[in-house]
Specification:
This protein is an alpha/beta fold. It folds into two domains: 55 residues, Winged helix-like DNA-binding domain superfamily/Winged helix DNA-binding domain (Arc Repressor Mutant, subunit A, Orthogonal Bundle), CATH 1.10.10; 185 residues, Rossmann fold (3-Layer(aba) Sandwich). The strands form four sheets. A seven-stranded parallel β-sheet has the order 6-5-4-9-12-14-15, with helices on both faces. A hairpin with a 4-residue loop joins strand 7 and strand 8. Helix 7 runs parallel beside helix 8. It is elongated and about 65 Å long. The N and C termini lie far apart (45 Å).
Length: 251
């Protein structure tokens, strides 16, 4: 079997099963462990999969620029944001992170809502500020131009001084074994801090983000109060997560 053909077979198996095991690839493709190890490394270097112990998982899409991310899966993000907005009550203190899905929440809030929102996302702060009865606070730190987010030690310190009722967190990837993950280290620290300082955590993620993994872990799936997703989630992923006790709502 040719090198490229073998790698295509690996990617096909990954697409069908959601993960591949090195031992199974050795048997199915009739090659050595070293060959499979090299193939997985080459595919990982090309950004086509994520190597993990004993095999590989699909990789999350890494796009940092806010305006580009916002255009992806716009309909799904809007539906998820609308469902998330229904959880917000008067007088609550809410962390809302820098995701493009959470940025859509402002459009679905009641005009007379009285609440405090704390965010590290500049576009989200601007949208929330259009609602006259909201108290909107932006976390300090270094502004990352492409992402339009604030990160850094100051951001974490400010989060640690607040006890929130609720946090709304966008997530890049969700996997039962590897948890909730993202592709930016500083972003993972902010999300972790917000979840730790909140009584309840809502994770917002489109269906295509399940059974995928990014490099930096935010939390175990068991630490998430509720996951809000959309109808594009595959039934097998929905069943697997619910069997493990995850609370998943379909927007």
């Amino acid at each position: 079997m040719l090198n490229d053909e073998r790698k295509n077979r690996i990617l096909e198996a990954l697409s069908e099963k959601g993960r591949v095991l090195s031992a199974e690839l050795v048997n199915n493709l009739g090659v050595s462990e070293d060959t499979i190890r090299r193939d997985l490394k080459d595919l990982a270097d090309a950004g086509l999969l994520k190597r993990v112990h004993g095999g590989a998982l699909p990789v999350g899409k890494i796009i940092f620029q806010f305006s580009k991310r916002e255009k992806q899966s716009a309909t799904e993000k809007n539906a998820i944001a609308k469902r998330a907005a229904s959880f917000i009550k008067d007088r609550q203190v809410i962390f809302i992170d820098g995701g493009t899905t959470t940025a859509q929440v402002a459009a679905h809030l009641r005009p007379d809502l009285v609440a405090t929102f704390i965010t590290n996302c500049l576009p989200t702060a601007m949208r929330l500020s259009e609602l006259p009865r909201l108290d909107v606070r932006v976390l300090g730190g270094k502004v990352v131009p492409d992402m339009l987010l604030t990160f850094g030690p100051q951001t974490i310190r400010e989060i640690s001084s607040i006890q929130a009722d609720l946090c709304l967190i966008s997530m890049e990837c969700l996997d039962l074994q590897y948890g909730a993950t993202v592709s930016n280290y500083d972003d993972s620290l902010v999300k972790q801090a917000m979840m730790e300082r909140s009584a309840e955590s809502l994770v917002l993620a489109e269906g295509q983000k399940f059974n995928r993994v990014s490099p930096y872990k935010v939390a175990d799936i068991s630490a998430i109060s509720t996951i809000i997703t959309d109808t594009s989630i595959e039934e097998k992923h929905l069943e697997a997560f619910r069997k493990k006790g995850s609370s998943i709502l379909i927007a």
